[in-house]
Amino acid sequence: MTDLVQPRNGQRMLRTVIDADSLPPLHAPTVVDVTVEYFENLIVSGALHPGALLPSERRLAESLDVSRVSLRSAIAKLSAKGVLIADGRTTAVTNVSAALISAEARQTGSFSAADAWEFWSFLSVEAAAIATERHTRVDSVSLDQSQTHLLTGNWDEAEEQTDRLLNYLEKVCATAYNFFYTQVYIALNTALRPIVANRLGEIGKETELRQSFVSSINDAHLCFINRDREGLRDAFAALCSFLEPGKGDVIRFPTSEHTTSASRAQAMSQLVEHFRNSAMSPGQTLPSVETLAQATGIATTALREAIAALDALEVVRIDKKEVVSLLRTDLPDSSAPLLSLILKRPDAVRQVYEFREVLEVHASYMAARNSGADIAPMRAELKQALEISEEQYAQADVKLHNRIAHMCGNTVAAIVSDALMPIFLKVTQEWFRLHSESYGDLDIIHRQHEEIVNAIEARDSASAADAMGVHLNYVVQAMRAAEERDRLMRISTLRSHFG
Question: What is the pLDDT of residue 250?
């Protein structure tokens, strides 16, 4: 409410009187929640990469100025989400993207090492090109050290040199500052490691070949340090060509290093099934641990661990008074850990689109070159898309992009697209939520899809890649504009409480 008041200088002015009841509620996070958020931000920012070991509990608690009890609870939540893995002695960052890719790849079984190498080479070149524009002086010093370590290594020790080479390449990729890109790249490095080790063993035995390979590393590193983007593309492509596998070689993606313990997973499933069988609904308070133990036959210790894990997965909520409330009666799918990192962070969403641009521009280019690609299903889907709602269009959109990945002729590109499709879908649904408030229709998106399909049908690879790039760039720019409108709307709403 606003009143006119008479100040001492005689000038009349407006005074805002705040109505306390109209203010939005303040939800103060707990120390555990803040600590969880802190680590998730470190992972998304790229400060903590897959495989990174955390300091000891004592040192970490002192550094963060939190109690060891709170830190332990935060790490337990992050472990339940699949973001960290703790074995009682060490705690490491997991590769949540690799877990999805590994699960999808296991359904395929073994596949061509040539496909994996081609896709890996492409990602290496693109990551290095992005990194030329983003790396810092600290990054340059670290990469100089890694390069020296590699070049002064013993070439008769192929395994050690493989570790050094992959460490160098992963550092280059990490300086692109896209955690999504880094996680996928490290997953591919792990799968291709035996092939790389074999090729380095052959390179180490031939003096002339080894000298050429070392020269390619020096050329790539010099272009990187000098921020020569196009020169680096050529140099990295030459470097990767030395590691091309032999014909007929096959590989498998290794099992993800993060797995929920069998006992905890079983207890979680039993609990959720008990909620459903007991006709419990979201919002209800759970019985005591003792009561649940009697009803389910689960030991109390395992039960407490399962409830903590379900809290991390947002199936239940534990409040400050240790009261447990039910939020849902089903377990989230395997993409939940990655989604929990992405959806609440605009920067992470943009990283997803940056990765999609790299993946799908390349897939469009290759699909147009693939003479065996069947365009008819995409034509049918485009026609059907004109008759469905905005809510359904998000799924149709992602399905179209996934079909292009399958048309590109590379099994690994298709596996990566399939594995990350749930992430792409959720992010696309969020985009349509923001987009529809401003535009109200999908004409622009549909026309862009038609241009991509037309170029693929015409076997015009350059135009197909350009059309996909224009489309994804439009999506990112529109999302940024929508985010800004949302920010201004929040400020405007807050003003209304004070005006």
Answer: 80
β-pair partners for 285 = 325
Q: Which single residue is written with the structure tokens 């073994």?
A: 110
Q: Are strands 111-112 and 91-93 parallel, antiparallel or unpaired?
A: unpaired
Indicate if the alpha-carbon torsion angle 67, 80, 54, 28 is positive or negative.
negative
Segment holding 192, helix H or strand E: helix 179-205
pLDDT the model gives residue 496: 73
Buried b (16+ CB within 10 A) or exposed e, 42-64: bbbebebbbeeebeeeeebbeeb
What are the residues whose beta carbons fall under 8 Å from the beta carbon of 228, sequence distance 6 or more? 132, 222
By CB atoms closer than 10 A (0-12, 13-18, 19+), residue 34 is middle
Closest listed residue to residue 119, CA positions, set 464, 405, 469: 405
Residues 6+ apart with CB under 8 A from 198: 158, 245
Element housing 15 (H / E): strand 13-16
Q: Are 412 and 109 in contact, with CB atoms under 8 Å apart? A: no
Cα Rg for the chain, rounded, in angstroms?
Answer: 26
Q: How far is residue 323's CA from residue 341's CA, in Å, rounded to a whole number? A: 26
Q: Are 236 and 125 in contact (CB under 8 A)?
A: yes
Helix axes of 31-45 and 346-369: crossing angle, nearest 10 degrees: 30
Return the pLDDT at 154: 93
- Interatomic CA distance for residues 366 and 409, integer angstroms: 7
Please name the amino acid found at residue 43.
I
Q: What is the pTM of this model?
A: 0.80
Q: Please give the structure tokens belonging to residue 124.
A: 């290496």
CB of 76 within 8 A of CB of 308?
yes
Task: Please give the Cα distance from 240 to 226 (Å, whole number).
Answer: 20
22 DSSP 8-state letter = G
Residue labelled with tokens 């492409």: 122
Q: What angle do CA 405, 197, 159 make, to 5 degrees?
A: 135
Written as six digits, the tokens of 497 are 């409480």
The stretches of 278-299 forming alpha helices (DSSP H) are 289-296
Rounded to a whole number of angstroms, the distance between the first and last alpha carbons of the chain is 6
Averaged in consecutive runs of 10 residues, what is the pLDDT profile of the chain (499 residues)? 50 53 64 90 86 90 92 87 82 84 76 88 90 91 94 92 94 90 88 91 93 95 92 92 85 61 74 88 89 88 82 80 84 74 80 90 93 79 78 85 92 91 86 63 84 93 95 85 79 72
User: From CA 80, how far away is CA 246, in angstroms rounded?
Assistant: 41
